[in-house]
From TrEMBL, chains A, B:
GO CC annotation: cytosol
Biochemical pathway: Pyrimidine metabolism; UMP biosynthesis via salvage pathway; uracil from uridine (phosphorylase route): step 1/1
Major enzyme class: transferase
Function summary: Catalyzes the reversible phosphorylytic cleavage of uridine to uracil and ribose-1-phosphate which can then be utilized as carbon and energy sources or in the rescue of pyrimidine bases for nucleotide synthesis. Shows broad substrate specificity and can also accept deoxyuridine and other analogous compounds.
UniProt: phosphate binding residues: R99, R143, L144, G145, T146
GO biological process assignments: nucleotide catabolic process; UMP salvage; uridine catabolic process
Gene label: UPP2
Protein name as it appears in the record: Uridine phosphorylase
Family in the record: Belongs to the PNP/UDP phosphorylase family.
Enzyme Commission code: 2.4.2.3
Amino acid sequence: TAAMAPILLNCLGNDRKEYLEETFHVNNPNLDGMEEDILYHFSLGTKTHNLPEMFGDIKFVCVGGSAKRMKAFAQFIHTELNLPGSNDEPKDICEATDRYCMYKVGPVLSMSHGMGVPSISIMLHELIKLLHHAHCRDVVLFRLGTSGGVGLAPGTVVVSEKALDYNFLPQFEQVVLGKVIMRSTELDAGVSRELLQCSKELPNLPAVIGNTMCTNDFYEGQGRLDGALCSFSHAEKLEYLQRAYEAGVRNIEMESTVFAAMCRVCGLKAAVVCVTLLNRFDGDQITSPEDVLVEYQQRPQVLVAHYIKKRLALIALTPP
Amino acid sequence: TAAMAPILLNCLGNDRKEYLEETFHVNNPNLDGMEEDILYHFSLGTKTHNLPEMFGDIKFVCVGGSAKRMKAFAQFIHTELNLPGSNDEPKDICEATDRYCMYKVGPVLSMSHGMGVPSISIMLHELIKLLHHAHCRDVVLFRLGTSGGVGLAPGTVVVSEKALDYNFLPQFEQVVLGKVIMRSTELDAGVSRELLQCSKELPNLPAVIGNTMCTNDFYEGQGRLDGALCSFSHAEKLEYLQRAYEAGVRNIEMESTVFAAMCRVCGLKAAVVCVTLLNRFDGDQITSPEDVLVEYQQRPQVLVAHYIKKRLALIALTPP
């Protein structure tokens, strides 16, 4: 890691410059010269679909791992925004593929991204291209997820300050043509603060701001003792979790670093809002009853819906 | 990478010793002492389900990224094995969750694993535990996937000799409690040879044995010029693909290294069989018509079904 420091600083420098421009942009000069852009994993394309008409009014993109959960969020936000029409069977815009699901509800896009960094990375590349082709402006992205808690009561919502790698560093390691580069994983501090404020306005929504560790697997990488492979002791697990806690880590999940890094490079405001399903100091298996887990998983949705409603009220009040 | 060589050799040494025992085993002394093991991402558990009764007779596990494709494979293998009953609506054993789908067809398990190393890694941990709890013996695992070809005509099936990382090395980098360890990604040479032989017995099934590169993303890591981010030229892309070709790489996908590594550590025979959807020297976008792509994606299924039928005929001929 020490050897990578110069690369890191160099890349953060570049990213920061781009970020300060504060306009959303793809970082690929090739795109606008392409005759057609097929968003393969969405089953959408610039020739087959009118992307500006379909998506041009989007202001909020909410993503999460599970297809069922993001369909439920589409139905929930439809009710919360008092939109006309039925929300019984929202249409999956990506129904021609089973890679992801996608629902549009007024200015809100609700999408699933599967599990892990590579899966959400494919989704983000094609989502950011979609927002570009559709000429969207001032979009905020939210990841609404589940996670393992580190020293928190189950059901606590963690709004991520920074996404950290397994060394507790705020960076994402990206391979480009066989070379490793580092990208910063800082998130939008303003949106995080507003989300924490929103949590205080809601009943039954315990929330904290803390760091989120992102790993590439659920078992050995997160120090679980119950995988098919395990070569460490209970004491070594606790020692690692304790070091994570001391680095400000309050939860562990599997997508936040690349989500933060890609949004940051493209000048998109982003927040990560994950509920904890267990306290990893107390165990590894998720043993809460189904109805309790379902209620926990609604908490990030309730919080982000509240934020979106406040924002839309503000937009409505602002003269054009 | 040079600094990691001692770790690599050390780990390969351990893994090889375990592999030579040639019996399938989980590598976790904690498991058998657990009162209950919840396979959370499958919605199965040792207390709630009779795993030996449900899964004890499994001999072949076929996994692939797409849920729709693995459902189609379940229907296809049902017909191919002349099993009784209807295959119109196979039952998804994991229907209580949307993380993966799972179908059992006689001695064959067909499962989806989503996209990318972390997604298939969660599936493999819980699958290997399932096979362990169910007391399965002599199981062979196949990954049936899609990939980008390197110097091959689209539609060619690649049976992987080795799974390589982005440096073209046959190793998988696993983080355990914040430390990087390396695992070997060699696959079963015998099964691969038999699969190549099977391909020669089938019409319209062009197949080769070659190395498979596994990456953590679909765009920058595979040298695509059409992602949301791209910082390299067409010439640099071609130079990287050329180096891959010279290292024996014939296709690129996103799951093979961890699949090979985990199966190897647990003494499970494994093969990777992926069809190429395009030749990456010629382009990045997948532009073939839908019906052509569907036929390509059936090729690994046809090949592995043929292998399974030959194997079952052999088992039937062998005295107990």
